[in-house]
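Assess this:
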Amino acid sequence: MSRKRIDAVRKQFQRENLDGVIVNHLDHIRYLTGFTGTSAMLIIGRKSADFFTDFRYKDQSAKQVKGAKIHIIRGDPTGALKDFSKYNIKNHRWGFNGEYLTVTGRKRLEGALKDAILVPADNVFTELGWVKDSEEVANITKAVRIADTAFERILALIRPGVREREVAAELEYQMMMLGSEKPGFESIVASGYRSALPHGMATNKKIQKGDFVTFDFGATVNGYVSDITRTVVVGKASPKQKKIYELVLRANKAGIKKVKAGVSGKAVDAVCRRIITKAGYGKNFGHGTGHGIGLFIHVGPRLSSISDDKLKVNNVITVEPGIYISGWGGCRIEDDVVVTRTGCRVLTTSPKNLLEL
């Protein structure tokens, strides 16, 4: 699989008239080679692929890296490039991903490859990992199931007087016990007025009766993450809470129904946004409707009002409309779905009816 992925990158950079690309983003390196360490560089040429790391990862890279020749070097991989003459041929064009290369990093590359030409090649990496193979979908599906089960287990803990951080800790513990390698990202538990914060990380705030509580969380399986959001009410829901919840739920279901290969991310966003805007809460839905997930929590395609991304078969994306009212609270409902030719397959199974706990 690694060779196929590297070959796909090779075809892409050849279209850009490049002699090769320098891959320095660890998530991209993992996707292309299987390496999970924290120090590496991958260089893909027209006929070669070379992986660089240091002595700490000698045994690990020997077991994990596929599709590239392994070089164990001293110090930083960038500095070692000057010893490899095949990379420093006059006027050879080497692409790099500017999104993940600092100004200092570029200067160091220029110093190591003085005769070569460094060219921004973000297009080569733009859709890297967006379309999933069957193994990737299986990993994400398992990560979703773990998160679903963990959420079911912590529902009994949600009651007045319990702190947000206590619930978040238990949620992450349950995911780990169910097989998650780590949280997919820092878990969000936001209650009461704090549920109006789309990224309201858990605090010491105590949950109170009548609070909306929004949970945004995910598990990790073989590096692949899930990303799920559910909102509940502690006690009996008020008429306003019911109204807001039903609007968000309608938008969520409408967005899922719109998902299909060939549809734009902008079109899915528009379906969700129209429902919320028509009800008078358009200004309270200030983020995009969704995004791709995979080895990292935010990848393409994007579902937003400014996205021109087109959905493809086996994209795995989130659909997550929300309404947030400052000082009062908010609600978001998020599912993970696999794009198909005729629609999508919803992976998330946690209940979406309004839970009054």
Remarks:
- The CA atoms of residues 160 and 287 lie 30 Å apart.
- DSSP finds ten helices and 18 strands in the chain.
- The radius of gyration is 23 Å.
